[in-house]
UniProtKB/TrEMBL annotation:
Pathway: Carbohydrate biosynthesis; gluconeogenesis. Belongs to the phosphoenolpyruvate carboxykinase [GTP] family. It catalyses: oxaloacetate + GTP = phosphoenolpyruvate + GDP + CO2. Its cofactor is Mn(2+). It comes from Blastococcus xanthinilyticus. It is found in: Cytoplasm. This is Phosphoenolpyruvate carboxykinase [GTP]. GO terms for molecular function: GTP binding; kinase activity; manganese ion binding; phosphoenolpyruvate carboxykinase (GTP) activity.
Length: 619
């Protein structure tokens, strides 16, 4: 379609950019180009200080509703509630960049396709120019952290202000070294979401440092600083520069107040598998006041080896948390409850909402939904009181409903969370929803075996991605949806970056989700109690416990785990710490097939695989 007649010339784009202090000519040229292409009516340059005004405008326009004092409610299009993996592509100009999971396509094919979709698609709308930084200012990785998102949706801007550091100062002095990140929403009613005629595309042109996303305003598809830049682009940049890793990792600190020692743990779990909860966890009350857990990050960590002290340092490039609402309550996660309380500026998406009381509710917030259903609407906006007999048991909130809050609201935010250097990493953990086989925790002390363990992370897919819930699948390092280059090279890059440390972190695999085969209950209560296996891991690293060596790693003895105040069923504890050799031998055959998909896998990974397989056969 031709460009809508108008505007270029009518809207004084340069005047708007001048007034907002956006002086970088490369950024200005980029804004001009996409303003013309998308056919937007107006532009606005966003600084974080615009938040209050944008909130007011969004409330006036009905894009947000008040959820009590200083909190907001939004509802997404019902066909637009999760990340799409199928429509997500990493494109470059080099066919050798094709891996198994990155859905590689030629950049020369994808750019015109996306620009075609975007042409004229923002007509009538404002294009918001959102300059951002994905790193604490001054970080050694800052060169990879700046970007400018262009979006035609105001609620996306409000989320970006919470999730990233936003303002023109982050990009003015950078010349051309920023990520170009264009988000065009499109007509969500007619994009054929999930059908063979799906119109959406979420493309990272990694070697051009350009992101083009069309067809969704759900956070995981539309907050380009977070998902597309913080993970896909950054993991590619980390490899291309040879210097760092960007992973879907949480990052936390544990302080033992008795000894004064502080440890840092990072680790990967697939979306909706417990990262945010673990990072926000407080020590279980039963352990007294001995430990403090500091929140550093809950979804992304960038890791590098520091030449000065030979340790691995991690930063959280984000500025906020985009958490799963389901099951968040006083008991499971009191820290989160406080972080999203009134007055925090939190935005809820797709929870249930009461327009009379401005209250919000989601499954697991309380044991039962509010008894008086007056005024309550489900995540689709339908009145609960008008539900038919068949609809009566449907969830009120979408399972992937979310809260968005800034890090500063999190009560256990680390005092040094903005330290540009990051924090030294003591342990790297992997985990996911695995109903059997994987014990509560097993430690792996060898680098290649740790990387091998991450590459063979297998877990149930969750509602955070469309159409995959419950499917057991491999999700290497929890990066399957964010892989940007071939898995063989990815493994080699891991061995290189972590191998450069002289004081290496210990690895471990954790599982909070083992279930009883008969009645399905979780064998481990999880949440705040997850600190206990981490404490054991730190003791193991310090040589204070020895554990029990198994073919798949070191498992705690029941006596070594601090279970003070817990009342686990005795049989459950046994199952939690047992390695079922026959079951693991079956798993090894699947792993062999999984790894065989990746040509050029480093020999060290195969050696680790064969070592584990042989140890299992010796049992
Ligand atoms: P993330 O997406 O990886 O950050 O995962 P979240 O921490 O947001 O958790 C996703 C879902 O899993 C939420 O509904 C949590 O309530 C639930 N969850 C988190 N940790 C645990 C746990 O230790 N045990 C159980 N049973 N559920 C958990
Ligand atoms: P999550 O973050 O991993 O906390 O669910 C969002 C996502 O990965 O889509
Ligand atoms: Mn994530
Ligand atoms: Mn999370």
């Amino acid at each position: 379609p031709a460009l809508p007649e108008k505007l270029c010339g009518v809207t004084d784009i340069d005047g708007v950019m001048d007034a907002a202090g956006l002086s970088n000519q490369h950024v200005r040229d980029y804004v001009h180009r996409y303003f013309e292409l998308t056919g937007a009516d107006r532009i606005e340059v966003v600084n974080a200080s615009d938040d209050a005004r944008l909130l007011r405008e969004a409330l006036d326009a009905g894009e947000l509703a008040p959820a009590g004092e200083g909190r907001y409610y939004s509802r997404s299009h019902p066909k637009d509630t999760a990340r799409s993996e199928e429509r997500t592509v990493v494109a470059t100009s080099n066919p050798a960049d094709a891996g198994v999971y990155n859905n590689w396509r030629p950049a020369a094919e994808m750019r015109p396709l996306l620009e075609d979709r975007m042409r004229g698609a923002s007509a009538g709308k404002t294009m918001y120019v959102v300059p951002y930084l994905m790193a604490p200012p001054g970080s050694p990785l800052e060169a990879f952290a700046a970007g400018v998102e262009l979006t035609d949706t105001r609620t996306v801007v409000l989320h970006m202000i919470r999730m990233a550091r936003v303002g023109v100062d982050h990009v003015n002095d950078l010349g051309d070294s920023f990520v170009r990140a264009v988000h065009v929403t499109g007509d969500l009613d007619s994009l054929g979401q999930g059908t063979p005629d799906d119109q959406r595309w979420f493309v990272t042109l990694a070697d051009e440092r350009t992101i083009l996303h069309y067809g969704s305003s759900y956070g995981g598809n539309a907050l380009l600083g977070k998902i597309a830049h913080g993970l896909r682009q950054a993991t590619y940049d980390g490899w291309a520069s040879g210097d760092f890793l960007a992973e879907q990792f949480l990052l936390l600190g544990i302080t033992d107040k008795q000894t004064g020692r502080k440890y840092h743990v990072c680790g990967g779990m697939p979306s909706a598998s417990g990262k945010t909860n673990l990072a926000m966890t407080l020590a279980p009350d039963a352990l007294g006041d001995r430990y403090r857990v500091d929140f550093y990050g809950d979804d992304i960590a960038w890791l590098r080896a520091d030449p000065d002290d030979g340790r691995i340092y991690a930063i959280n490039p984000e500025y906020g948390a985009f958490g799963v609402a389901k099951d968040t309550n006083e008991k499971t996660n009191p820290t989160a409850v406080e972080a999203i309380a009134e007055g925090t500026g939190t935005i809820f998406t797709n929870v249930a909402y009461n327009e009379q009381t401005q209250d919000v509710w989601w499954e697991g917030k309380t044991k039962f939904p509010p008894a008086d259903v007056t005024g309550w609407r489900d995540w689709k906006g339908e009145l609960i009181s008008e539900r038919s007999e068949e609809e009566k048991d449907a969830p009120w909130a979408h399972p992937n409903s979310r809260f968005t809050t800034t890090l500063a609201n999190i009560p256990n935010i680390a005092p040094d969370y903005e330290n540009p250097k990051g924090v030294p990493v003591d342990a790297i953990i992997f985990g996911g929803r695995t109903r059997d086989r994987e014990p509560l925790v097993r430690a792996v002390t060898d680098l290649a075996e740790g990387v091998y363990d991450g590459l063979t992370l297998g877990a149930e897919a969750t509602f955070a991605a469309e159409g995959t819930e419950g499917v057991l699948r491999y999700d290497p390092m929890s990066m399957r949806p964010f892989m940007a280059y071939p898995e063989g090279a990815y493994a080699a890059h891991w061995l290189k970056v972590i191998g450069a440390a002289t004081d290496q972190p210990i690895f471990a695999h954790v599982n909070w989700f083992q279930r009883d085969p008969e009645d399905g209950h979780f064998l481990w209560p999880g949440y705040r109690d997850n600190l206990r296996p981490l404490l054991w891991l730190m003791q193991l690293r310090n040589g204070e416990v020895t554990g029990r060596q198994t073919p798949v790693g070191v498992v705690p003895t029941p006596e070594e785990l601090d279970l003070t105040g817990m009342d686990l069923r005795p049989g459950d504890l046994d199952t939690l710490l047992t390695i079922d050799t026959a079951r693991w031998q079956q798993e090894m055959a699947h792993r062999e097939e999984h790894l065989a998909q990746f040509p050029d896998l480093p020999e060290a990974i195969w050696t680790a695989h064969r070592r584990v397989a042989a140890a299992l056969d010796d049992q």
